[in-house]
Amino acid sequence: MSAAWIVLALAVAPATTAAEAATVRVGSKAFTESQILAEMAAQVARSTGAHVEHRAGLGGTRVLWEALVRGDLDVYPEYTGTLVKEIFAGEAISDGPALRAALARRGVAMTGSLGFEDTYAIGMRRDVAARLGLARLSDLIRHPELRLAFSHEFLERADGWPAVRARYGLSQTDARGLDHDVAYRALADGRIDATDLYSTDADILRLDLIVLQDDRHAFPEYRAVFVHRADLADRAPAALAAVRRLEGRISEEQMIAMNARARIDGVPADRVAADFLATSLNVNSELAGDALWTRLLRTTGEHLTLVIVALAAAVLVGVPLGVASARSPRAGHLLLGATGVVQTIPALALLVFMIPLAGIGATPAILALFLYGLLPIARNTHAGLTGLSPELRESAESLGLPAAARLWRIDLPLAAPSILAGVRTSAVITVGTATLGALIGAGGYGQPILAGIRLASVPLTLEGAIPAALMALAIDVGFGLLERVLLPRGLRPRSAKQRT
Hints:
The protein is mainly alpha-helical. The chain has helices at residues 2-12, 18-21, 32-46, 61-70, 80-87, 96-104, 126-132, 152-156, 161-168, 180-189, 203-206, 232-235, 237-244, 252-263, 269-280, 292-327, 329-344, 347-358, 362-386, 390-398, 403-433, 446-455, 458-486, 496-499, and strands at residues 24-27, 52-55, 75-79, 108-110, 120-125, 149-150, 176-177, 195-198, 209-211, 224-229.
């Protein structure tokens, strides 16, 4: 087992150099506005000569906040209401100085307002609202039959749906969770009646939605700011000063227009940010647009790294676990049961659990994939060894072979077909599950898939989905060929034609 952890450590441990210590790492959430703002921060910081990395689309608020506190990120765009009601929900924060003091206690600081507010809201199609006579959130009390669907984060946040239900005394309890962008499409198609909005979303105008008035003030003020590590002022003062140039420079109308360019017109977020910086701050950014094949090569390399390292570690651990389980039935129940429990944890939850342990990026994704890959390998190793005929064992014992020699020369070779089948299954599962690693900055094929969902772009989604499917198919076929090469003819799995 120690060998597997060495493989993991060598493969995913970052190499720290003096040059990398000054790198400014910018993060963004998985929605358009956050990525545009993060691109602005990245580009103005880069204009000072700093080396900047933008880790885009990193899931929800907690993912980025934990990454910032850990030091995996240096800066990301946030909203004051989110900080007060979500990050510091248990603290009595009444004003800006109190918020800055709470941030400082965690080694974090924030810029001034960027100039606009992007508050939560609940919206409906205009024709539905007019038909039902709805204009305010308090009007929802009269319509418990409405089909509600909200983003998963809004459903759980202290300043989201729980706050609205409590403030307005709403009886609706069957609100569904949907991805924010998917909810917009469901609203437009009439499959749901209301969803949560961001007040600067371009889709409000595009879909002709009405924003229900928050007449009882359930939502706090959501001023857009950048939160950053306090030590960034010492490590990269020029970059931080450049980011602060954005304070007060972005109006609500400008932000809505930029969101519209990205979401409706399909302009990349980095180009939208660059155009704003050129006209508003006279900062000109050189953007190197990647061709399709360049992007495919990069995401394929990232995805293969995740799969190969995680699978190698799973083999190094899973086979010994299966051997130990076969030799001791009592230990076998415990070991196989433990690996089975890991398999029942939802992939997204396991990835989030890994962030406090390993931060964001490839490391937590590989650890999660390693844990998911254990069960098929350990179980098939156990099944292959326990399925050997007693006569073979008795013959080996009569020859006087030691237990270790019997394991290596007889048991494992005879169990090889079952073991390889387990590795093959684990490999295919790992290819598919690795796409979720993009939510925590691991890259791979999940990156274009998530971008495609966010922008409602089928080509972008297919740019990740098709290569992932092809990689899984290629690995499955490759293991089939490997079985024919490594296994003696008598031990190869027979095809249906051969059995008949």
